[in-house]
Design goal:
There is one protein chain. By secondary structure, the protein is mainly alpha-helical. It has two domains: 9-80, Helix Hairpins (Orthogonal Bundle); 146-297, Up-down Bundle (Four Helix Bundle (Hemerythrin (Met), subunit A)), CATH 1.20.120.80. 68% of the residues lie in helices and 0% in strands. Helix 3 (82-121) runs parallel beside helix 7, helix 4 (164-187) packs antiparallel against helix 7 and helix 6 packs antiparallel against helix 7 (272-297). The longest helix has 40 residues, at 82-121.
């Protein structure tokens, strides 16, 4: 008699409150951020935006802990099959792709200003009229002398790429190397080496964030480089600021992975949570290399 055909098991979780909690948290956060940015206030003159935003962020943190905790528990119980593993990999791949498109939009804005908008305002476009909007305006990048300095004062000077930015580049590139060594140690079953290399990766990420804060303080205090410094200031802080936010999230994710490693989680055969964190960190590192070249050097 032929043996019954074997089918791959696909785990279907029970009903969960976390999707609706996450949706509410995002709604509250966006509403709070919009209220804060537009300076709306209540009848008493108080500005509730920051409190609404903080409440939404707390809800998000609660959702992350609860939802990811459920996923970790289910994985540790052996409920996930290889089909579920493929689903996780596809989801993480699409998430990183969406992040790539996010940064492409900001790099695209930088490219458009430097290659098209700036030269066009200087009369180098197809209209051929020199200084069509500002007679005294001469475009060059970085744009230190703004067309209307009374409204958008330019910085006194720009940040040298060969000081803190270069150090931060070396830190992040080194962190990718240490994270790769941690991954190889995990696959080889070397738990102590895994702990040490992963801890060093987190430390390098934290040092990077500390140096970036020092760079921002130097830019605001000494160079006059702020978000209000025209298109150069806005593109600089939008690109580096959002990247710093992603490094912060990546460092938090790697810290969670480190805690799980110390608790004995992950095996050489089953460790996609660690792999997903590594994918994200390597993506953040690649973005920084592009930032270093196109924002600081060129």
């Amino acid at each position: 008699m032929a043996s019954p055909e074997k089918h791959e098991i696909y785990y279907v979780p029970e009903q969960s409150k976390w999707p609706i909690v996450g949706s509410i948290a995002l709604l509250v956060s966006v509403f709070g951020a919009g209220t804060l940015m537009n300076g709306l206030s209540s009848g008493s003159g108080a500005a509730p935006g920051q409190y609404i935003l903080f409440a939404g962020l707390l809800l998000l943190v609660w959702m992350f802990f609860g939802w990811f905790g459920n996923v970790i528990k289910e994985s540790r119980q052996g409920l996930y099959s290889s089909q579920m593993d493929r689903s996780f990999r596809m989801g993480m791949t699409w998430f990183i792709f969406s992040e790539v498109m996010f940064f492409c939009a900001f790099f695209g804005a930088l490219f458009y200003v430097r290659v098209f908008a700036g030269p066009w305002l200087d009369g180098l476009g197809d209209k051929g009229v020199s200084g069509m909007l500002w007679p005294e305006f001469n475009f060059s990048w970085p744009l230190v002398n703004n067309p209307d300095p009374s409204r958008f004062p330019g910085p006194h000077e720009t940040i040298s790429p060969w000081q803190l930015p270069l150090i931060n580049t070396l830190l992040l590139v080194s962190s990718s190397v240490t994270l790769t060594l941690a991954h190889h140690a995990l696959r080889a079953g070397k738990r102590k080496a895994l702990q040490n290399w992963l801890l060093l990766t987190v430390v390098l990420g934290v040092i990077f964030l500390g140096l970036q804060l020092a760079e921002y303080a130097h830019a605001y205090r000494d160079l006059g480089l702020t978000l209000k410094s025209g298109i150069y200031g806005s593109t600089f802080f939008m690109l580096t600021g959002f990247h710093g936010f992603h490094v912060t999230m990546g460092a938090i994710i790697l810290t969670v992975m480190l805690i799980r490693v110390y608790k004995g989680h992950f095996t050489p055969e089953n460790h996609f949570g660690f792999e997903a964190a590594a994918w994200y960190w390597h993506f953040v590192d690649v973005v920084w290399v592009a930032l270093f070249i196109f924002v600081y050097v060129l």
